Amino acid sequence: MNRKLKRLEENLKKMGSVLIAFSGGVDSTFLLKVSSDVLGDKVMAVTSSSPIHFSYELKEARKIARRLEVRHIISNSRECENEDLIRNTVNRCYFCKKKLFKELKRIAKKNGLRFVLDGSNYDDLRSFRPGKRALKELGIRSPLAKVELRKEEIRKLSKKIGLPTWNRPSQTCLATRIPYGERMTRKRLERIEKGEEFLKGLGLKEVRLRDHKDMARIEVNPKEIKILVKEDVRKKVIDGLKRLGYTYISLDLEGYRSGSMDKSFKTVNKSIS
Length: 273
Fold this sequence. Notes:
- This protein is an alpha/beta fold.
- The chain contains eleven helices and seven strands.
- Helix 3 links the parallel strand 2 and strand 3.
């Protein structure tokens, strides 16, 4: 693990100057911290402001960037104005990343920064992520994946150097809550965000609200299912989500698992993975 960190530092030093796509999550925060330690003021963090992201993530990103004393700007990448993304096909992530990172490359060039980096880790290379194709086409670098740093290693290193994100639950964009093929509207994204924030307010740490139009399908860590079946909590969940417009409320007994919406496809087009 320490050997991988050393290689990461060496690779960053060779780059000279970088712009980092910064969400404020575990991976991008760790990458930003190491990059800042190695390159000093030759680092810029850029966070995308978009309806497909939780509003609290923007606040957290600002807070962390200030703490790390790194140049930080907010970019409105306007992904949700892209009809290819709104149609919500299986390769929606490709269109989203293509638009986002084109804008980041423009910002990097304007500020004289040589490379644009993203926080993908080594584990991400083995999952279904159509956005990887966009990164490759645009020449975006993923230094954590390059040195084969895995998620748990990044968490351990983050804890060691005192980053507040070391134990933060993994988070994905709101688009992943909507089944492929169903249009992604701003109103629908807002309802999902409000629903998940409501559920987290009940003490749930890891939760996904999958939006099946009039039905809300709740995924939580299996250990937390017992919280939702308590009579008083169950009633709060029903009332709270029905106020948001859902007719049916269901609890997925398999619990939370990353990429559960991908299971509806029996085959995946390998050309976009």
